Amino acid sequence: xxxxxxxxxxxxxxxxxxxxxxxxxxxxxxxxxxxxxxxxxxxxxxxxxxxxxxxxxxxxxxxxxxxxxxxxxxxxxxxxxxxxxxxxxxxxxxxxxxxxxxxxxxxxxxxxxxx
Length: 115
Hints:
The protein is an all-alpha fold. The protein is 58% helix and 0% strand. The protein has helices at residues 27-51, 56-65, 68-99. α1 (27-51) runs antiparallel to α3 (68-99). It is elongated.
């Protein structure tokens, strides 16, 4: 018994007419947030093997990446980058909210603060 062939499914781009889109972050802000969460995850991924360095899995991981010295280097690098990115992030929020008196940055319809 021959199988029935289905018609190929096509996806049409609807564009902005289909709904309302809001751009909450600029490209620089999206990049900053990506750096923040990436370095935080990097700190977690390198900090656990350092903290539990007596564990078998930590020793194996250390030998795969070049030793605990390499893990410590990446841990410190992530810490420095995270600290700098956080300082820039706080400066940006302060500048936009306090200096420029941007409406709705802390509370309001466009705020990221839960209300």
